[in-house]
Amino acid sequence: MNARFSFLIIISVALLATLAGCGGAAPAVATSAPVATKTAAPTTDVGAIQTQAAANIFATQTASAPTATATTAATATSAATSTKPASTSAPTRTTAPTSTPSSLGGSSDASFISQVVIARETQATTFDPIDILSTYATTDAKFHAVATLKDAPANSALKAVWYAVDVGTAAAKNSKIDETAVTTEGSRNVDFTLTANSGKWPEGTYRVEIFGNGAQAWAQLFSVSKSGEKTNFIDQTVLAKDTTPDVFEPQDITMVFAPDDKVFHFVVVLKDAPSNSKLGVTWYFGEQEIDTANLTISGTRNVDFTLKQQKPWPPSSFHANLFVNGKFERTVFFSVQ
Prior knowledge:
Blueprint: E1 9-12, E2 29-33, E3 52-53, E4 63-64, E5 113-122, E6 129-132, E7 135-137, E8 142-166, E9 175-195, E10 204-212, E11 215-225, E12 234-243, E13 250-253, E14 256-257, E15 263-285, E16 288-308, E17 316-324, E18 327-336
Parallel strand pairs: 7-11, 14-18
Antiparallel strand pairs: 1-2, 2-16, 3-4, 5-6, 5-8, 8-9, 8-10, 10-11, 11-18, 12-13, 12-15, 15-16, 15-17, 17-18
């Protein structure tokens, strides 16, 4: 291993956590160490679905013909996918359960969604994400939110909803831009896209939310700037059942845990974080806040936030909110089944 990554930082954060009906959760622990490059194994490719949407708050909406079965204003494609390699860096870890809305329609089961990332492009046939990011340039006419599915049952409903959170005078704050719903099955990628009719997006902050069978599975803020340079140092986030002991490379990436999984891992990949950068994660069980972990970090590394519990987890919905320098960054939803 390169000498500059031969260190190991261990940060322990002891926090009280209560979990109604299933015993207390263990204090959150954060550990940091260099991380190796990672590429997630692709799921079985069973086809692709794509729909396209044009932004309807900045220009008249148009719908383009998808490459497969979906037809709406947003773009969704489905096929096997692999994730972008994680940056070399020291991960940290904190633990606590989270919750997701449990009754939004359908069967309220989004367990077939294993991962979601935002990307600049996707591969033409499998829709593997290319150039995973959190900031687009104004000249990037199309947004991509790629959802990786694993063993989705027949007729599984998937939906993406796009918002303009703060784009100055171009639109009111938190304006809904568009949404797309598709029906799919199997193990594949679904690439939701949103295209600006003018070919340019206003500078500002946006949000995309992903739903599976009516249950919210994922939500993320992202931004648009003239240069396309990242507005913060978060490179990627994933949920996993385990991490490697030295570099905290995520193992068995998932959004669904078993009751006997003792630890939840929420791995945040950092790239060039400035000195004294602040990260925080708040975990929820249903709508009940259980635990919060905060730490100061820098550099390019993984931060592995974990939640531990000795008793089995109750089957339910959870979520974790990530904060960067005191500002909300994104929500990650997961469940125990």
